[in-house]
Design a protein that fits this description.
By secondary structure, the protein is mainly alpha-helical. The chain has ten helices and two strands.
Length: 170
Amino acid sequence: MKKGIFFLLFVFMLALIFADIFFSPSLASNTKKTSIPFLHALHGDSIGLSCEACHSGAYTNREAFMPSKSDCMDCHRLPLTESEGIASLDSALKNASEHPFQTKNRLPAHVVFHHGVHAKANVSCEECHSNELAWDRGTPPLLLMNECLACHQGKRGFEASATDCASCHR
């Protein structure tokens, strides 16, 4: 009897993995590239801005939101931040929509993720979003289930946490 239950659970997990691989939205159709250049290292490492300075909700909400045109200009209009690049930024933003940076959720509809819960558990943004160059090119890296499981199973320097399927899959 126990072997039958474990076999069904194994088959169910395989089905979830294959569903994530084959039916997840593609990155190409979910990311709108922008002509406005952005460098995470310049804003974070050089200036010291936190992720939530531009991505509101990153530390508290389910979603981390993309900045709007006015969010960018709130800082770039300050006298202390004038630089040679402000003219090209003005030019790029002039014809841009109010929300020039748009990324749709890259997780399958049946996967639940909450940024705030992970931030409260002291998981840094860089743990999942470490490839700044890919982000800056407008091609965010694909997150795979085995990467999530590595953390949740305690294999990446975090204590093991929820690994039951229903915690993340609906």
